Q: What sequence folds into this?
C-alpha cells in the first residue's frame, strides 16, 4: 500500500491540530459563556475582571488549576485514581474525529479534494456510539478508585444513567439511518440538503427530542446531573479530585457537550448546509468551504446555548423519575418511531417524508398517552398499599446500605 | 516483512491486547483485572479494524466494552470485601485447565491455517463494500433469516430471566 | 479503507498526550504540603465511618443486564436500517423486510412488557 505523504499524513495532522485546538478553545469559551450567560439569566454580572468582559477568565482558571496542589489521598487506588480523568477526556476528544465540520475544498495539484472532516469512515455514527460508551469507565473507575462514599454513589448513579440513556441514543438514530441508508455522518448530512423542511429534525421529531434528551443525560447536565447533585453528594464521582485532575473531568464534560451538539447538528439539523449559501464561490472553492464551516460553527453554537438555557430553566429530576423517564417513556417512543417510519415508507407512495413526519409525532403522542395512563394506574394501586409516598426519594440514597 | 506505519500500529494493538490479557489473569486486584479486560476487548476491536470488519469492531466496543464489562465491573465492585484474591490451585485443576487451553489453541491454529481468505488478504488501499450493508443483506436472505429471528427469542428469554431476578429482589 | 482510520489513531495519540501532559504538569508545578487531615477521606468534615466500598443495590446490576439485552437488539437493527431503503424499492421485498423487523421488535416488545409488569423497569 502506497501512502501519499502529503495527503494522507500531513494534511490529516494539520486538520487534527486545528480541530483539537478548536475543541480546547471551545471548552474555554463554553466555560466563559456559561458563567456569563448564567449571570445574565440570573440578573447578575458573572466574571468580568480578567481581560475585556472577563474573556481571559478561563485561562486564568487553567493556570490556577496547574499550580494547585496535586493531592493524592491515602486511601485511593493510586493507578486507577490517576488514570480516571484521562479515561474520560480521551474518548471525549476522539469522538470529534468522524464529525464533518464542513464541505470539501479542492486545491489544485492534489489528487483528492480535502474533506473538512478528520476521518470519513463508513461506520461513523457507530464509532461515536462506541467511543461514547467508553466514557462510563472514567466515571466508574474514578468513583471506585476514590474510595469515598459520595464518589461511589455518584459514580454508580451516573454510570447506570449513562448506560440507560445510551440505549435511547442508539435507538433514536435508527429512523435517520433508515432514510439515509448509511452510517457515515457525511452521507447523512449530504442527504438532508440545504432546506430546513428536509432536515431530519422535522421528519423524525420525536427521535430528535429523545436524542437530545439522552445527550443531556449522557453529559450529566441539568436536569440530569444527579451524579453530582451538590446537596446530596457534594460533587459526585470527582469529590476526591483536585488540581488539574478535577479540571480534566470538567473539560471532558464540556468537550462531550460540544461534540454532542455537533453530532445533533449533523444528524438532525442539516450539518453544514443552509439554503441560499450552498454554492457561494462555486463547488469546492476555499470560500465555499469556509462558509460551510461557519454555518456548522454557528449551528453548533446555537445548540450549545440551548444547553446553558436548559440548565437554568429546568429543576433536577429525582433518580427514580430519571430512570423511569428513560426506560418507560424514551424507549417506547423511539421504538415506535422506527416502526412508524418503516411502515409509512413502505405503505405511502407519495410525499413519504411529510407523512412520516406527521405519523411520527402522532404516534409519539399516542405512546406517551398510553404510558402515562399505565403509570397513573400503577401509582393508584401502589398508593393504596404504600401509605408513605415520601419514602420513595430516600430509597435512591439508601442504595449503598 | 516490511516494517511500515501500518505494521507498527498493528503490533501496537496486538501488544496492547496480549499484555492486558496477561494482566487480566495475573493481577491480584480484581478491579484492576476488570480494567485490564477492558483494554483487551478494546484492542481486539482494533484488530477487527485491521481485518476490515469495521461493523464488528464497533459492535465489539458497544456490546462488550460498553455493556458486558460494565455489568462485570458492577458485579466485581459488589464483592467489595475481598479485593485481593489469592487462589490456591490444585494440581489436577492445573492439568485440566492446561489441557483445555492446549486443545483450544490447536483448534484456533487449525482455523487460522484453513481460512482461505486469510492467506491472500492484502490491503492495496482499494475500497471494499461497507460491511454493514453486507451483513444487512445476509440477515435478510433465507440463509440467516431464521437465526436472526431466533436471536430475538434468545434475547426474550434473557429479558424474562433478568426481570425474574429483579422480582425476587422486590419481594425480599 | 484502513487509511481512513489512520487520522483517528493520530487523534488518539494527541488526546493521550494532552491528558498526560496536563496530569504530569500539575503534578510537577503544584506545591506539596500534605497533612494527615488533607489526605483522609472527605466526608463533609465528619470522621469517616467504615469503608466506602460496600455492597450496593442489585438494581444497578439489573439495569446493566437490561441494557445489554436491548443493546444487542439495537446492534441488530443497524444493518437492517442501512439496507432498508434498497429493499423497500422493490414491491415484494419492501413488505417482507418490514414484517421481518416487526416480528423481531414484536418478540422483544413482549419481553419489555413482561419486564415492566414484573417491576423490572421500576426504580423505587
A:
Amino acid at each position: 500500500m502506497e501512502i501519499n505523504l502529503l495527503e494522507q499524513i500531513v494534511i490529516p495532522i494539520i486538520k487534527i491540530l486545528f480541530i483539537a485546538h478548536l475543541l480546547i478553545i471551545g471548552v474555554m469559551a463554553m466555560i466563559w459563556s456559561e458563567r456569563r450567560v448564567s449571570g445574565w439569566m440570573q440578573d447578575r454580572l458573572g466574571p468580568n475582571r480578567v481581560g475585556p468582559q472577563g474573556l481571559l477568565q478561563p485561562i486564568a482558571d487553567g493556570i490556577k488549576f496547574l499550580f494547585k496542589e496535586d493531592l493524592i489521598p491515602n486511601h485511593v487506588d493510586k493507578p486507577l485514581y490517576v488514570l480516571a480523568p484521562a479515561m474520560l477526556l480521551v474518548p471525549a476528544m476522539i469522538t470529534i474525529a468522524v464529525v464533518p465540520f464542513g464541505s470539501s475544498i479542492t486545491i489544485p495539484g492534489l489528487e483528492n479534494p480535502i474533506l473538512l472532516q478528520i476521518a470519513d469512515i463508513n461506520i461513523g455514527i457507530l464509532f461515536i456510539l462506541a467511543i461514547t460508551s467508553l466514557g462510563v469507565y472514567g466515571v466508574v473507575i474514578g468513583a471506585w478508585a476514590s474510595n469515598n462514599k459520595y464518589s461511589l454513589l455518584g459514580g454508580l448513579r451516573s454510570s447506570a444513567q449513562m448506560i440507560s440513556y445510551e440505549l435511547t441514543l442508539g435507538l433514536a438514530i435508527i429512523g435517520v439511518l433508515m432514510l439515509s441508508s448509511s452510517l457515515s455522518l457525511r452521507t447523512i448530512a449530504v442527504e438532508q440538503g440545504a432546506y430546513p423542511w428536509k432536515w431530519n429534525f422535522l421528519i423524525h421529531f420525536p427521535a430528535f427530542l429523545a436524542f437530545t434528551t439522552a445527550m443531556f443525560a449522557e453529559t450529566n447536565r441539568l436536569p440530569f446531573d444527579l451524579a453530582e447533585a451538590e446537596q446530596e453528594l457534594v460533587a459526585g464521582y470527582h469529590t476526591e479530585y483536585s488540581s488539574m485532575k478535577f479540571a480534566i473531568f470538567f473539560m471532558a464534560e464540556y468537550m462531550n457537550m460540544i461534540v454532542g451538539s455537533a453530532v445533533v447538528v449533523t444528524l438532525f439539523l442539516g450539518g453544514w448546509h443552509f439554503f441560499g449559501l450552498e454554492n457561494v464561490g462555486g463547488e469546492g472553492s476555499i470560500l465555499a468551504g469556509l462558509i460551510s464551516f461557519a454555518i456548522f460553527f454557528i449551528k453548533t453554537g446555537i445548540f450549545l446555548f440551548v444547553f446553558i438555557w436548559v440548565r437554568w430553566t429546568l429543576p433536577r429530576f429525582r433518580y427514580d423519575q430519571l430512570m423511569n423517564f428513560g426506560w418507560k417513556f424514551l424507549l417506547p417512543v423511539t421504538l415506535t418511531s422506527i416502526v412508524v417510519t418503516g411502515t409509512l415508507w413502505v405503505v405511502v407512495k407519495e410525499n413519504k417524508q411529510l407523512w412520516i413526519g406527521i405519523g411520527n409525532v402522532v404516534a409519539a403522542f399516542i405512546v406517551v398517552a398510553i404510558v402515562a395512563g399505565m403509570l397513573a394506574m400503577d401509582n393508584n394501586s401502589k398508593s393504596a398499599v404504600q401509605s408513605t409516598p415520601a419514602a420513595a426519594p430516600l430509597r435512591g440514597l439508601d442504595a449503598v446500605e | 516483512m516490511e516494517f511500515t506505519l501500518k505494521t507498527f500500529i498493528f503490533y501496537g494493538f496486538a501488544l496492547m491486547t496480549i499484555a492486558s490479557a496477561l494482566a487480566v489473569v495475573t493481577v491480584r486486584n480484581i478491579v484492576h483485572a476488570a480494567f485490564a479486560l477492558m483494554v483487551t476487548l478494546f484492542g481486539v476491536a482494533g484488530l477487527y479494524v485491521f481485518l476490515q470488519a469495521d461493523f464488528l469492531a464497533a459492535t465489539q466496543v458497544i456490546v462488550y466494552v460498553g455493556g458486558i464489562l460494565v455489568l462485570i465491573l458492577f458485579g466485581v465492585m459488589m464483592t467489595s470485601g475481598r479485593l485481593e484474591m489469592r487462589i490456591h490451585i490444585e494440581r489436577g485443576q492445573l492439568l485440566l485447565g492446561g489441557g483445555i487451553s492446549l486443545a483450544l489453541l490447536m483448534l484456533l491454529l487449525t482455523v487460522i491455517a484453513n481460512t482461505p481468505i486469510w492467506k491472500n488478504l492484502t490491503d492495496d488501499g482499494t475500497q471494499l463494500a461497507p460491511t454493514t450493508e453486507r451483513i444487512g443483506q445476509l440477515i435478510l436472505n433465507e440463509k440467516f433469516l431464521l437465526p436472526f429471528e431466533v436471536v430475538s427469542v434468545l434475547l426474550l428469554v434473557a429479558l424474562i430471566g433478568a426481570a425474574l431476578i429483579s422480582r425476587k429482589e422486590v419481594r425480599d | 479503507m484502513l487509511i481512513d482510520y489512520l487520522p483517528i489513531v493520530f487523534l488518539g495519540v494527541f488526546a493521550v498526550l494532552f491528558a498526560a501532559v496536563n496530569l504530569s504538569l500539575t503534578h510537577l508545578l503544584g506545591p506539596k504540603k500534605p497533612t494527615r487531615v488533607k489526605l483522609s477521606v472527605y466526608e463533609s468534615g465528619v470522621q469517616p465511618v467504615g469503608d466506602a466500598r460496600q455492597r450496593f443495590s442489585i438494581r444497578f446490576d439489573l439495569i446493566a443486564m437490561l441494557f445489554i439485552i436491548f443493546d444487542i437488539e439495537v446492534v441488530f437493527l443497524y444493518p437492517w436500517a442501512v439496507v432498508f431503503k434498497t429493499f423497500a424499492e422493490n414491491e415484494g421485498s419492501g413488505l417482507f423486510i418490514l414484517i421481518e423487523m416487526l416480528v423481531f421488535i414484536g418478540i422483544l416488545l413482549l419481553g419489555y412488557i413482561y419486564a415492566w409488569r414484573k417491576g423490572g423497569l421500576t426504580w423505587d
